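>> received
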Amino acid sequence: MAEHLGSSKRAASMTKPATTPAPLRLVRSAVKPCQETIDALTQLLDLAIRGEVTGIAFACSVRDGSRFITNVTGRCFENPTFTRGALAFLQDQVATLQHQLPRDGPR
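>> returned
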C-alpha cells in the first residue's frame, strides 16, 4: 500500500504545471473594402480639391450594415432647402433600386 501511495505522489509531482491561456491578439476583419465605394469617394475628393464639389450630404453604411453615418458640410449645410431637394432626388433613386429587387430578395 505504501508503494501505491508513493507512486501517486510521484505521478503528482510529474504532472505539468497549469498553463495560462495565450494572450488575445487582434486579427484583421474578413470584411474587404468595396472598390466601388473607394472609387466614388476618390472621385468626390478629386472634385472637391478642384473646387467643383462645394458641399456634401451623405449617409453611409458601416461594416455589417446595421449602423450608418450621416453628415452635411459646406454649401449643403449652408443651404438646407437645396440639400433637402437633392436628398429627395436621392431617395427617389434608392426607391427605384429597391423596387427593382426580386420579391424574395433583401429589402
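>> Residues 62 and 105 are 21 Å apart (CA to CA).
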